[in-house]
Amino acid sequence: MLNLNSQFSNIKVLGIESSCDETAAAIYSPSCSTFLEKIAKQFKTHKPYGGVVPELASRCHLETVSELANAVCSDAGISLKDIDIVSATAGPGLAGALIVGLTYAKSLAFSLQKPFVAVNHVEAHMYAACAETEISFPFIALVVSGGHTIIADIYDENYYKILGRTIDDASGEAFDKGAKILDIGFPGGQVIDNLAKKGNPKAFDFPRALMKNGSLDFSFSGLKTALLYFHQKNPDAPLEDVAASYQEAIVDALVIKTLRAAELHGRKTVVVGGGVSANSRLREKLAEKANGKANIVFPSFPLCTDNARMIAYRGFSLYNSRGEDSLDVDIFPSFKYN
Ligand code: KG4
Ligand code: ZN
User: What's 209's domain CATH number?
Assistant: First the structure.
């Protein structure tokens, strides 16, 4: 076990992320709360297919992961052997993609004889904002990504309870599939966000599911189908108005349920994470509707979408609280929590 006293001296934590279509390596220095990061985005590879192709994703991770880890060390003016803790995403995500990053990180830890920590990607999103802002526990977390939409009550670094989750599509998936239906580009979330800035969010009325009976669960598949039928019937409707109205339906569900969770559980802080937390309308409307009753914290953009900073930060926090993991640890493609 490393000696973490004296303000963590000059400990350097390497984080590796490869759960989907971003390969990333980051170095976190807890003593000065700084990050260095190198990311290889794959969207040009997947763009012709309108979605992520798992086999191509794995191949891209394999081609870049070692290069990125070396490059981030070189930016830090160190070599790999100067790393103190190696952490990597073990799940959830695409199996082949996870295997590449996790195997690289475990091999590195083994060859350097340094501690290894396996990180849950969804939890890394949950706590990402804590990497740059001092946030007191407990708080409500909203994780909104391409694969997950979760509201959780966070008691501390290790203990949380899931209060609500999507029963079908994730919110990021709703953005991506919506953009595909409208044929306006890939990746969908950012395209809809940009287009919606020029549109009227009240132009068309799209359904908000599971809003009654106090449920904290989400459902976005009916909304996606409603968009499909609307677009077939109204192919000439202004796309910016359609995008703004569709986005508003997603954002309303997220805002209303998250603030409902905070009120029900008496939490004064709401922390958002995951790719959809980059959405400008979500950022605006959550703050507006909280109206000072809850403190709303969004991570900065590099910590919203998939990144290795949050993996290194979470790796350090887990090491600090429960020590290293065995190198026998395996990937887990589906979300699981203790
Ligand atoms: O967290 P993330 O990078 O990867 C996963 O863990 O899934 O999230 C990716 C999701 C995608 O569905 C993408 O469309 C969405 O985040 N996204 C956005 C925005 N930027 C990324 N959704 C809405 N507005 C954005 N500005
Ligand atoms: Zn993610």
Answer: 3.30.420.40
